[in-house]
Amino acid sequence: MATRPPIGLPKLSRRSRILLYIAATLILLLLVGSRLLNTYVDWLWFGEVQFRSVFTTILWTRVALFFAVGLLVGGLLAVSLWVAYRTRPVFVPVSSADDPLARYRSTIVQRVRLFGIGLPVLMGVIAGSAAQSDWQQIQLLFHGTDFGVKDAQFQIDIGFYVFTLPFITWLINWLFVAVAIAFFGALITHYLFGGIRLAGRGGQLAAPARMQLSITAGVFVLVYAVDYFFERYELLFNTHDLFSGANFTDLNAVLPAKLILMFIAAFCAVAYFAGAFLRNLQLPAIATALLILSGILVGAAWPAVIQQFSVRPNENAKEALSIQRNIEATRDAYGLGPDKVKTQDYAGTTDASPSTIRGDQSNINTISNVRLLDPNILAPTFTQREGRENFYGFPEKLDVDRYTVDGKTQDYVVAAREIKTQGLTETQGGWINRHMVFTHGNGFVAAPANTVNSALQDSNDQGGYPVFKVSDLTNDGPIKVTQPRIYYGELTTDNYAIVGGKDNGRPLEYDTSTSTFVYDGKGGVPIDNLFDKLVFAAYNTERNILFSSQIGDDARIMYNRNPRERVNKVAPWLTLDGDPYPAVVNGRILWIIDGYTTLENYPYAQRTSLNEATNDSLGGVVPQDNRTISYIRNSVKATVDAYDGTVSLYSINDKDPVLKAWEGVFPGTVKPSTEISPELRQHFRYPEDLFKVQRELLSRYHVADANEFFSQKTFWSVPADPTEDGASNGTNTNGAKQPPYYVLAQAPGQSNATFQITSALTLLNRQFLASWVSASSDPNDYGQITILRLPSVGQQAEGPVQVQNRFQTTPKVTENRTLLQNQSVTPTFGNLLTLPVAGGLLYVEPLYVQRKDANSFPQLARVLVAFGSKVGFAPTIDEALDEVFGAGSGDTATKPNDNGSGTSTSPSTTPPTTTTGSPPPTVPGGGGASPDIDKAVQSLDAALTHLHEATRNGDFAEQGKALAELEAATKQYNDAKTKAGQTTTTPSSPGAAPSPTPGPGG
Questions:
Q1: From CA 312, how far away is CA 763, in angstroms rounded?
Q2: Of 149, 529, 618, 858, whose Cβ has the fewest other Cβ atoms within 10 Å?
């Protein structure tokens, strides 16, 4: 037998090796340099927030996965290449002098180590880089727990599907990849070195090549057999048109087919192994044909036949079992079980008299707290009236929370006055100003949600604006804040701040118009040495950090300042709510962010698109990722201190198995619920995104019977927001859903008014109201969901779109064309609230006006109220309620006190009319009592004439000026009467005084 001649492997010169090493080092630095820089910066940041254990756990898990998968893929490829090269033929016939394979063989032989080691290393690096991002599945495998609930089909604990099965599937996928790469590596090597020849009839296959390729293919098919076994469990995650989970065909055709295919695949793997040792290619060929044919007939054709001829003609009966399982699993996975959801019938209409309605304390508790301020509209009003300097700002969407002031609890529209460096002028916008001077916001701003001021309360405007309660460095409001400086907020997404800097020994940071400030908190990373300056100069691509002499001792750099971003980094396993909100807790401003534990695969539970379920007409919130879930729990409340950036995670669902698993991965990072202070718990809200997901599912899964579910006849829908688009006719042309609303109300069955999130649901593809859903935020029954189910036949309650149509077709509304169709102002309908009152439904909607001016901002002009068949339309909620319930019903709302607090509504003026042509009324009390009185009466007459003309012309700007003149004339008249020794009496107002209108800024 001829032996293979030795092949000498040429070596690189020393100079070539040095150049090669230098080139490889440079390439490596380019590839990993930025990643190393980011890793070091993250290391410093996690140390600042004291969550470095999270950083190290994730890092080492990623590193371990990188090498494990890299060794698996690269190692199998290296073995496959080595075996193929070692078993290559001794003599390889050359077809011609220009045979391209000969050149490739020569190149490989000359650099055999480069190819034999370099290729596996390269493939290993690529595979490891792809696999290291799956660190969560590995950690959950080691720390998973039981759910205490078994699936309906296999009677296996849900924990297997959540923690174990994802890892098994992941491992099988990587085995497929590794074996396939090894197979093709061997195939190419054998072809290049003559083990496989395509010339001649049928080609030629050397015995070593046949053995290696057959064994490798057999291993691949054996992995396929294992995969068939575990695919049986994945059937419980299938998605169908009506429901998720294994349907009749899956259980009775696909499930048996998986077992059959598993045995066929195992038999085929044995055939491949036999073919390798028996030197028979027919066995692998037959096995391949059998595998393909069985996959088509057993795996695809047979289930299709069952579905078409057995299931379709009797689908309601055939799918009843699967639908029932889906209903039960979905309610359990989304927290919609009977322990959390209470359903009661509600008439939606009432015959109660106005006096009965007015006299019931539960109705008073709801009506007196009706929210007039829309947090999604009033951000410009907050900015213009309370923004102060141009570098302060408020988020696009404000928030709603409740506070107890002077012993009275009510809901407030709240916001933190944050730093907004984008508002700096061109001359203010230098690097030092943006990053070292204007570093923080100042103050907490709140406004009672059911209160606006009146024209007579505020001499600077004509009313219709929030009554602001401000606590900052220059004000000590009723909501006490001991540290109003805000270094961490929603407006600081991509802006770092360097604090502690000094200019010739003087503090740099702007604090107030008369003072500067040196930060004394624990937020930020030290940057007072050359190395860290160099690091952050490179990280931010900003050379000023390196060369600025004002970054001295004790300087710190703050980054990742957005509260949601901070929580996301310390708890990447959480799905965060899109709407963080500020709250004052024990004198400090804290950002509160809701965290969800979610799962993609929960057996039989309905798969829901997180983005679609949470997407509605509400702006200014962070949209959720476009992914599907089948399990969600609000198990964590996170807080971020606005001054020092401290991040705290609190468990509010200690029984959640997913949370328990993550607490095992990152021990000590989530504080137990016992550490939540009562003051903090008072400001927990039932989260919006969770409620949106749950109301979407409740529209279908309030149905408990499988046959009724299949017919879909009692399904509900989330209504379109009637105020979002097409506001002139009450329709919504883009189909955006109506968002849920936070209100302080007393729902049926509650003993007092509580803070809750509510939503109306309509009949499927109809506009009549089907139900009213509410979730409590009260600490005593937090998370309790109440469903008021309305009649679907007979006398039905109107839904939001129908109510909006009625609002805008009411004669009194259509008569006020000057308000709704004035060329100088833009009307905006606020949130349409639906509230259960006295067995009926009370609808309340504020109407805002805004001048078409760059510096204008919204102002409350009217309030629309509907109850039963009656509609109220007036400048104040009290007057609108009087029109619906009769005179005096508005007295249920407390009038404002002298300082503007309380639960009153808008100015006490009556709505304008556009049809009157009578002259303005004269003012009593004149008649020449004294020259001063006569002069004052003339001023009053002139002001009233001006007011009447402005009202008739629909000129809101002139109305504002006339109201100011009327107020000044009234004061002049009273002063004159006092001076003359007469009793002071205020002249009566005209019968058709105009509504509150935008002032100079609005």
A1: 27
A2: 529
Give the Cα separation of 631 and 693 in Å (integer): 10
d(CA 485, CA 504): 24
Task: Answer for the pair 840, 868: CB distance below 8 angstroms, yes or no.
Answer: yes
> Would you state the pLDDT for residue 203?
60
In the numeric block, which tokens belong to residue 769? 């109201």
Residue 369 is classified by DSSP as T
User: Phi first, then psi: what are they for 410, rounded to 5°?
Assistant: -150, 165
- pLDDT (tens digit, 9 = 90+) per residue, 867-905? 988 999 998 898 999 888 887 544 444 443 333 333 333
**What is the helix (H) or strand (E) element at residue 72, kind and residue range?**
helix 52-86
Q: What is the spatial distance between Cα 982 and Cα 976, in angstroms, rounded to a whole number?
A: 9
Check: CB of residue 664 under 8 Å from CB of residue 143: yes
907: which DSSP letter? -
Question: Which H/E stretch holds residue 148?
Answer: none
Distance, in Å, from the CA atom of 189 to the CA atom of 207, rounded to the nearest integer, reads 14
HEC-encoded secondary structure of 251-307:
HHHHHHHHHHHHHHHHHHHHHHHHHHHHCCCHHHHHHHHHHHHHHHHHHHHHHHHHH
Which phi and psi angles does 246 have, rounded to 5°?
-75, 125
Determine the average pLDDT of the residues in 461-478.
Answer: 87
* Per-residue pLDDT tens digits for 6-16: 444 456 677 87
- Of 47-56, 636-645, 924-933, least confident by mean pLDDT is 924-933
DSSP letter, residue 6: P
Q: Are 399 and 581 in contact (CB under 8 A)?
A: yes
- Give which of 504, 519, 506 is closest to 419, Cα–Cα: 519
CA–CA separation, 601 and 161 (whole Å): 7
For 707-852, list the strands marked E by DSSP.
716-717, 741-745, 754-763, 769-776, 785-789, 825-829, 833-837, 840-851
Q: Helix/strand/coil (H, E, C) string of 420-470?
A: CHHHCCCCCCCHHHHHHHCCCEECEEEEECCCECCCCCCCCCCCCCECCEE
> Which pLDDT belongs to residue 948?
63
Partners of 344 in the beta sheet? 788
* Distance from C-alpha of 70 to C-alpha of 832, rounded to nearest angstrom: 57
Q: pLDDT-derived band of residue 1, with 50, 70 and 90 as boundaries?
A: very low
Q: What are phi and psi of 142, to 5 degrees?
A: -80, -20
* Adjacent-strand bridge partners of 761: 771
Q: At residue 922, does pLDDT exceed 70?
A: no
636: left (phi over 0), alpha (psi -120 to 50) or beta: beta
- Contact between 128 and 65 (Cβ < 8 Å): yes
* DSSP H or E stretch at residue 399: strand 399-405
Residues 590, 489: Cα–Cα separation, whole Å: 10
Q: Which phi and psi (to 5°) does residue 58 adopt?
A: -65, -45
Using CA atoms of 149, 151, 154, 157 in order, give the dihedral in degrees to the nearest 10. -30
**Cβ count near 824 (within 10 Å):** 14
Confidence bin at 240 (pLDDT 50/70/90): very high
780, burial (CB in 10 Å: exposed 0-12, middle 13-18, buried 19+): exposed
Asked whether the beta carbons of 571 and 560 are under 8 A apart, the reply is no
Cα–Cα distance between 213 and 314 in angstroms, integer?
Answer: 49
Closest by Cα among 880, 869, 908 to 986: 908
Q: Is the dihedral of CA 561, 564, 567, 568 positive or negative?
A: negative
The gap between the terminal CA atoms of the chain, to the nearest Å, is 101
* Interatomic CA distance for residues 745 and 663, integer angstroms: 37
Gap between the Cα atoms of 277 and 263, Å rounded:
22
pLDDT at 640: 98
